[in-house]
Model the fold of this input.
Amino acid sequence: MKPKKDQPETHAPRRLAASLIATLMLGSLVPAASAAPLIFSCAAGNDLLRVASDNGLDVKRFDAPLAAVEAAGDGDGVLLLADAYPTQTTVLDAALFQKAAGKHLRLYVEYPSFLPGMEVGAPRGTQWEHAVIASDAFAPALTKLRILAIHGCRFLPVKADTPHIVIGRVAGFDTAVYGWAQESHPILFDLPPQAGAGNVLVATTKLSDFVTGRYAPTDAWQGIWSYGFTWLRPGRELAALKWTASVRPSFGAGAALPADIEAQALRRGIDWYFNGRTTSYSPHMQATLWNCYLWAYRQTGFEWFRQRAKTAIGMTMAAYLCRIQIRSESHPELDGGWFRAFDFKRWEYWASSTDAGWGAWSIESGWTQSWITSVLALRQMKTSLWDLTNRSKIKSHFDKLRPTMVPDETLDEVLVNPVAAGAAK
Done:
């Protein structure tokens, strides 16, 4: 029975639904277009190339910038990296940028010899400067004024109005609390549209060296390269990037420790003296409070003092120092050592390295290293320095050595008038 003309067709919704289902089923049989690979011009061992590949990104590598640009498809992301950094810049010319613009490429270049429409200065080094986030491009992962470390940075001076990262003198631990100095230089910026080169992201140093160069802190560089890959491939989702740091703590903050962890730490700590490149010695006292507790226990017999010191030393040795001991296959001169600074919250080596001559990433061979290995050795021997030296025969040698240490004339001055003798010194 046919419906009347003024009545709606009751089967129309069913036919529409069937049509949609059929369309979806047919669509599922058609393979989705694969995402275009990222095109790299770099050496096979480049950090960024390896991290991209290890994190599941599709990559293609070429040996030369022009070959990479020519191989790219329309709108592809291309990275021209600084293989010869820091001795040589990445050789680029106007023709390459024109070719890239004609193919609508999204181009990332670092340490370039040439930029269209811009004057590129001669390479410069750094001394006190830190890198600082200068824009909101990386938000929310990285906010403006966040401090970064680019170790051994050499950069090309250029002028850019709105950089994403700058390098200059700053004050602060994680944040440049007073901003950056007036004399600062762009490290990462977008090439201005008036240059006529299309979409170009410029790094004036080698940012892709972040693993080998031990750039810090890790979470900041995860944010930077997440932004970089997203910029190169707009609209594509990207999981959090992961990599193994070339220099890292031996154990995680919550990792289970082997039963002989202190013995292992001791062996590796001693090996460091043979593998490391020791240049100076600087003995110094540590753990003064524990010394005071032990001294107080010896004088008073109050058990609480001894237990507090014993617990603190045990926790520090096993739960902290043995965990953060440096592990590095690629830097045997550092493996088994302890850096001067450690960020407990991030669980990595990070600090405000502004103490002149005492960088956060230095190893103080006569202070930190020697004290830790000495105490680990004493603990393995189940003794203390006091007990170990209780039968010392130093007194029998003292009379012979004392004149060399404290000459008679100096001794006489001190004994007669100690205040005047002290003032004279």
In short: The chain has three domains: 38-232, 248-388, 394-424.
